[in-house]
Amino acid sequence: MLSVQDLRLAFGEGSAARTVLHGVGFEIARGQAFGLVGESGSGKTTVLRCLAGQYRHWQGRVTLAGEPYHGERSLAHAARAQMVFQDPYGSLHPRHTVHTALAEPLRVHGLDRIEERIDEALQQVGLPLHFRFRYPHQISGGQRQRVAIARALILRPPLLLLDEPTSALDVSVQAEILNLLADLRQRHGLTYLLVSHDLGVVAHLCEHLAVMQQGRIVETLSRDALCEDRAAHAYTRSLVAAAEH
């Protein structure tokens, strides 16, 4: 589903240029969930932003659903990949109802049956149909993130880019959102690229993961290897040790 090879990104020019991604590479099979983990500033969210078209001056080779991707923000790319952001309140327009948020991508893509598709999207994420008339400030953080997931899914893309999708939520609702994501993936055959600093979140959702440090992938391993304490790199082992305390 997704192949990333030698992804490089720098900000600035000439002697002032600062490289933030140093040849990042990984592959995700169709229907797989893959995690990128690392401390803040390691470059994991930057990778997502390159794949979502928010940063377009990167170098490297990316193939998405069998098609080469060069950083463009096109309707075709939006139909293949959608991003779910960390802050569900910040990613939803405060003056737009849930209905407006969900209808906008459908109208942009010229799709029909808007009302029916919105009903279906709300049902998929476990929200009552009357929520379509509410504004973001009228619903909880967990419900806002469900709306954000519904908006990402409404175009039926095969790939979701998940940027810390539970870190802004109360602990009590984090597991609900993770279980929802796991269920949606199973039901619809979705592929996930999940960014998180939380090893527990990654282990809950992903079969494989890559550990990033200072813009580089230092180790790629399976969930089983992580849970069985078979990480080889010292930085990965330090993350595991920190998570246990």
UniProtKB/TrEMBL annotation:
Which residue numbers delimit the ABC transporter domain?
2-239
Q: Which PROSITE patterns match?
A: ABC_TRANSPORTER_1 (PS00211), ABC_TRANSPORTER_2 (PS50893)
Q: Recite the UniProt keywords alphabetically.
A: ATP-binding, Cell inner membrane, Cell membrane, Membrane, Nucleotide-binding, Translocase, Transport
Class in the EC hierarchy, top level:
translocase
UniProt-listed Pfam families: ABC_tran (PF00005)
Q: Where is the protein localized?
A: Cell inner membrane; Membrane
For this UniProt entry, the molecular function terms from Gene Ontology, in alphabetical order, are:
ATP binding
Cell membrane keyword on record: yes
Provide the leader sequence positions. none
Q: How does it sit in the membrane?
A: Peripheral membrane protein
Q: Which EC number(s) does the record attach to this protein?
A: 7.4.2.10
Q: Does the keyword Amino-acid biosynthesis belong to this entry?
A: no
Q: What is its main location?
A: membrane
Q: Which domain of life is it from?
A: Bacteria
What chemistry does it catalyse, as a reaction equation?
glutathione(out) + ATP + H2O = glutathione(in) + ADP + phosphate + H(+)
Family listed: Belongs to the ABC transporter superfamily. Glutathione importer (TC 3.A.1.5.11) family.
Instruction: Sum up the protein's function in the record's words.
Output: Part of the ABC transporter complex GsiABCD involved in glutathione import. Responsible for energy coupling to the transport system.
Subunit structure of this entry? The complex is composed of two ATP-binding proteins (GsiA), two transmembrane proteins (GsiC and GsiD) and a solute-binding protein (GsiB).
Name assigned to this protein: Glutathione import ATP-binding protein GsiA
Protein's organism? Pelomonas margarita
